């Protein structure tokens, strides 16, 4: 029997396609010569990690990064650099999210991200049709707001507690095996997918297999 009532999606690499090299290039372009040292496809380091974990604000990030490189940066420059991660979003992903909600699943976002990238996601530019990311999800759990990062046990427990569900009722989809393994250890059902690859078919198969 299918106990799944909620499906939680990672954002970068799953909901949307990402380009790590483009992000590194953009940060180098605005003056962060050692950008590669801080940027990671799954988990950021230093100031970048503090921003993602909600330990510092966007404003503090701009100030401290400017001090670090000895050059005054603007919010807009940092936003431009962070959006280097964005490669695109297949229409099939939007269609799948809509279909899953119509089928009765509660759809959640569970992502390590930062206020710059989420500023764009919450704007009308998200789907190119005037809708923000909130239009596609029933609830949103992002690291900088929760002040918790995947794969910590606490962030998964936070989601379960807020949704009022048991672990087996949640299916979590992520392109980081480290993240899905941590969720599975709590009894959460998981689907590990390859970064930027189409997951719509294998998700349907997994949901049908549990019926």
Characterise the protein shown here.
- This protein is α/β, with parallel strands linked by helices.
- The protein folds into 2 domains: 6-17 and 88-209, 3-Layer(aba) Sandwich (Rossmann fold), CATH 3.40.50; 20-85, DNA polymerase, domain 1.
- The chain has 11 helices and 7 strands.
- The strands form 2 sheets. The protein has a 5-stranded parallel sheet with strand order 5-4-1-6-7, with helices on both faces. A two-stranded antiparallel ribbon has the order 2-3.
- The mean pLDDT is 95.
Question: Layout of SSEs?
Answer:
Elements: E1 6-9, E2 17-18, H1 20-29, H2 35-38, H3 46-52, H4 58-69, H5 75-82, E3 86-88, H6 91-102, E4 106-111, H7 115-121, E5 139-142, H8 143-146, H9 153-163, E6 170-174, H10 177-184, E7 189-192, H11 200-209
Parallel strand pairs: 1-4, 1-6, 4-5, 6-7
Antiparallel strand pairs: 2-3
Helix pairs in contact: 1-5
């Amino acid at each position: 029997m299918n106990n799944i009532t909620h499906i939680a999606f990672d954002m970068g690499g799953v909901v949307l396609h990402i380009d790590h090299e483009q992000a590194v290039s953009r940060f180098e372009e605005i003056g962060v010569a050692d950008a590669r040292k801080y940027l990671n496809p799954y988990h950021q380091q230093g100031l970048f990690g503090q921003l993602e974990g909600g330990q510092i604000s966007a404003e503090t990030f701009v100030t401290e990064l400017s001090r670090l490189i000895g050059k005054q940066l603007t919010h807009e420059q940092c936003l431009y650099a962070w959006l280097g991660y964005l490669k695109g979003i297949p229409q099939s992903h939007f269609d799948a999210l809509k279909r899953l909600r119509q089928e009765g699943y509660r759809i959640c976002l569970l992502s390590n991200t930062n206020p710059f990238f989420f500023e764009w996601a919450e704007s009308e530019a998200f789907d190119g049709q005037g809708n923000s990311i909130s239009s596609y999800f029933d609830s949103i759990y992002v690291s900088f707001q929760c002040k918790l990062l995947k794969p910590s046990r606490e962030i998964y427990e936070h989601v379960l507690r807020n949704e009022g569900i048991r672990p087996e009722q949640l299916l979590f989809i992520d392109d980081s095996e480290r993240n899905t393994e941590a969720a599975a250890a709590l009894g959460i059902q998981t689907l590990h997918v390859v970064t930027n690859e189409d997951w719509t078919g294998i998700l349907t198969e997994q949901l049908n297999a549990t019926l």
